[in-house]
Amino acid sequence: MAELENINPSVYKKTEERPLTENELNEDVVDPIDEREVFDLIRDINDPEHPLTLEELHVLEQSRVTVNNERGEVFVNFTPTIPHCSMATLIGLSIRVKLLRALPPRFKISVEITPGTHSSENAINKQLKDKERVAASLENSHLMQVVNECISITKQSQ
Amino acid sequence: MKFPWSTSIVDVLKNDNKLDEKLQEIVKALTHHKEDITQVVEELGPALTHKDVEIRLKGMEFLSDLLRSLPKDLLDEKALGFIVAFYCDRMKDHHSISPQVIIGLVAIIKMKNLPRSSPVLVLQQIFANIPCQTQVRGDRANIFTIIQYLSDNYQVELQAMGADFIYGVIQAVEGERDPRNLVFLFEFMPRFINTYPLRHLSEEMFEVFSCYFPIDFFPSPNDPQAITRDILAEKLSVCLCASKEFAENCFALALEKLETDVKVAKLDSLNLLIKAVTNFEPTSVLEKFDEIWQFMKLELLSGAKDKDVNETALAVISAVLKKFKSDQANSEIILNKIFTNTIGTLLNRDSNLYKPTMELVLKCANATDISCGYVINKVLPITLTDLTSNEELTVKEKCEVLEDFRQFMMIVGGKKLLAHYIGDNYILQIQKELMKVLMTPSSEDLTKVTCLVLQSMADIISDENRQIVYKSLKENLTRSTEEQRQCILAFAKVFPKEVRENVLESFLSRTYEDANKAKNVFATLSFLLEVSELRDSVIEVLSLNLFNNKNLQVQLVVLEVLNKVLSSENCHQLARILFDEWRIVIKLMDLIKNENPDEGQDVMYQASLVMSLVVRTLPNDQQMALVEKYLPLMKLNESIPDLYVTSGLLGFLDAAVPMEAHFETLVNELTKLSLHSNDEVVRKLANQLLCSLFNRAPIDDKHRKILRKIYDVIKEEVKKHNHQAVEILGWISKGLLARGHPDAAEILETLSELLDHPKLSKSAELAFEIISLEFPQLHLPLLKHFFKQRIFVLALKFLENKIEKYSEHHLTAMAHILQITPHQALKMNLEKVGPILFKCVQIDPEDPKPHSKRILLSLKIINNFIHDKNQYILNHLQHLVNDLLKLSQFKPSMDVRIMACKCLENITKYPLFTLVPYKSDVIHELTIPLDDHKRLVRNAAVSARMAWFLLGENDAAQSSK
């Protein structure tokens, strides 16, 4: 990448680790998959441009994640840092891939741009919704490398 | 005149191999003044002027050796003058002779009567005739030794040489490459530079050193002298700052090299800057500060950077400020330069640069008094106006502002100069803000931070505000948090009297009925035991509620508080006061004896613990006196409270206190109690005491006989299928094993055999668990090194042969032993242990019992080996991966499922080619735990599955780059 599109983004604090509750340690209580859990899965994805996580850049916020555990639906809105960000598709794809790998197969996953935050919002949403295109991009080894890097570097920084 | 050779000297040098002896003879003759050195030289003449270079070399060698062997004060001035002249003349000879000339000179110049004119002559001739850097390393070292010795001892003469001398030295030193010589030079040259004016050659001198900067050096692995890069770098930086004339060049050099990307070079440059700032004149520092700051700004305020570099850069700023620590005007110029452009970032808390800027502010405040004042007056108000004027600040942001302020207060607090600035209205404003929080508490976090801030500034809170603090603390005392307790402590340290009157008064000298309330109050009060002015009142109220209050719950609370306090590291003084002044041991004994054995069991147990903790801190003679006085009175078989008292007396008794007199009776009674009592707590106490007593008993015939007797009694009971007997065996063997007792093995073997017993196998399994567990209340005075290895070796010996027909009990017992065995010991025996471990983690679908504990223990051990990338485990991956996948869906225990996922995740660290065959299976199977009903299992499964997905992907990415 020759130049950074957004040179000095605002950086926000990370949310605290989810506190352990007694129920979570109790074998007999069922913990349903909730918004916080899904948010925890994706908040550490790295921004392709900066050494920062999507959470720190407020690309992802817990309030923009909705989960319906019974019906098996997950809906994530993400907000690009600037309206003409060319990385938006890549970010969306990374979120999608991470969720596909980390959530049980019974979930239907939708990833969309927060309405009104990107200049070519509809086009990108359409790309991310298109199963064929997502599947095709997963076959593209170069693209997968970039996505894997976004997903994996977080592991080292932990 | 008789020389010890008959033929000519030339022949002697050519053929004689006993030159050494002859040399010694001449040395002897010279020291006894039987001969004269000039004659010796004359005698050597034919050799020294021989036409063959070889012979001349040998002659010189002989002469130099001779001079080195002579006492330093033997030769007089005239003779030395003669020899020096001779040696100087020899330098013009063939180049192969010069090493010997140098060796001789090293000896000559150290002689006592050296003529004052000789040094100049020697150096002149060396500079003129011997190009130093073309010599081998050892000779160069000799030349440097000559220069160093002469320049240290003949300053006046050499200073008269003027620039020639400096120039000669520069020429000799320039281009030196050997690290050993460099260490020598770097140590000596700063002294040289300070003694001799460099005149017009200062820049040349600087160049001599600057070419090494930054040092790039890798010591050879088997270097005996172990010169490291850091040693060289440290010494070099001293040289670079040795002369005030280097200032200009030195700053330029450090700043130039800062631009590098190599971390060590950057750190070297920063360290050089620190040294330069400290050593050179303030004026030159001031001149250069603009440039320095530009670079530091780049290092400090441009996003994420290396931590070490960041810290060192801050240290540079700190060094600059310290340079001007008593120069108000210039300090302010510098601080203005630093903060004019950076202060803006402090207004935007979300900015990337907020944190580094805050760090800089704190560092500056910490540097000097002047800079601290500057920060208080000019910088902090900007950051803290938010707090006092911005109404829209969220609670979280407020907490952050206060936290920054607290860090600042910690620095100021350390400096003790606030009184100087305290008149400042704005510190009062901060106080007002803090008081607002206290009076109208809105959020827990905010109160917490406020307490922390107050704690850091306890000594400067104004009188009326203190009253508000006290009021708030008092109101919250019955439900106080850790922070509030710390806060009370901080104020109590400064104003003990006020705290007592305003906060504690109503809580002291009274008995409590409500145990919950008492719990919080006592927990807070126990913090104040540190403050000597309040200690007595606190102990008084505790003792009142323990001994004069019949409420069992409250008594229990007091005992628990005492327990906690006395378990901490530095309770020694308190324990002594409790023992000497409050006679707590005697009182506790009475308390236990008068307690109702049915209801007051918890109180008795806690009281005996407190007793043992106090006894522990006493000196041995006092411990002994207590035991001698009270132990004989105990009737263990008749009274339960006596058991608690005994436990309190002996619980943490020092190993050196002798027990022989009571040992047999005590052990017999305890065994009886433990064999026949139905009360579990009583049995536990008796067993622990037995364990501790057998652990400390000396290994002699008398005590072994006692042990044998007890053992026989227990064996009889075992035959009657008494489960308690097996339990006692477990405890006794635990005590014996820990000290490496010779009889321990036999008991362990009995226990191993009992694992096959139709009725007692379960108890035997428990006995193994007892051996493996650690009990905080159990005192084992004698611990042998490597006793855990010993237990493992013994257990393996007894159980190894039966591996084929292992029952569940065998596996569980073994798992307990393996759990305490050090990793290294397991590793050495992995061929034997491995099959057992694998067997432990296999689940039999037919088996109704879950065995979660055993599986979990074994999984943890396996995980450790996976972590080490152990080869043995790698060879067994095929079945292990399958077992782990099954365990990741193991219904009865979530801990097992989590551990199995962790193992699977760690397996991905093995080389890629060994894992590829399993990849698709693992990824597929792990979808099931992804939908586990427990969140923690799901988290572990996600990490494991992600790791398997990324298997090999990163390597591919790296290689393609």
Automatic annotation (TrEMBL), chain A:
Family, as annotated: Belongs to the MIP18 family.
One Pfam family it belongs to: FeS_assembly_P
Record domain MIP18 family-like: where: 36-112
Record keywords, A-Z: Chromosome partition
Plastid recorded as keyword: no
Annotated segments matching region Disordered: 1-20
InterPro entries: FSCA_dom_sf, MIP18, MIP18-like
GO CC term (a single one): cytosolic [4Fe-4S] assembly targeting complex
UniProt keyword annotation of rRNA-binding present: no
Superkingdom to which the source organism belongs: Eukaryota
One BP term from GO: protein maturation
The protein's name: CLUMA_CG021394, isoform A
Automatic annotation (TrEMBL), chain B:
MMS19 N-terminal domain span: 41-301
Domain (MMS19 C-terminal) ranges: 524-907
Subcellular location as annotated: Cytoplasm, Cytoskeleton, Spindle; Nucleus
Keywords: Cytoplasm, Cytoskeleton, DNA damage, DNA repair, Nucleus, Repeat
Gene Ontology biological process terms in this record: DNA repair; iron-sulfur cluster assembly; protein maturation
The keyword Methyltransferase is annotated on this UniProt entry: no
A single GO cellular-component term on record: spindle
InterPro entries assigned to the protein according to its UniProt record, in alphabetical order: ARM-like (IPR011989), ARM-type_fold (IPR016024), MMS19 (IPR039920), MMS19_C (IPR024687), MMS19_N (IPR029240)
Coiled-coil ranges from the UniProt annotation: none
Quaternary structure and partners: Component of the CIA complex.
Role summary: Key component of the cytosolic iron-sulfur protein assembly (CIA) complex, a multiprotein complex that mediates the incorporation of iron-sulfur cluster into apoproteins specifically involved in DNA metabolism and genomic integrity. In the CIA complex, MMS19 acts as an adapter between early-acting CIA components and a subset of cellular target iron-sulfur proteins.
Family: Belongs to the MET18/MMS19 family.
The name this protein goes by in its record: MMS19 nucleotide excision repair protein
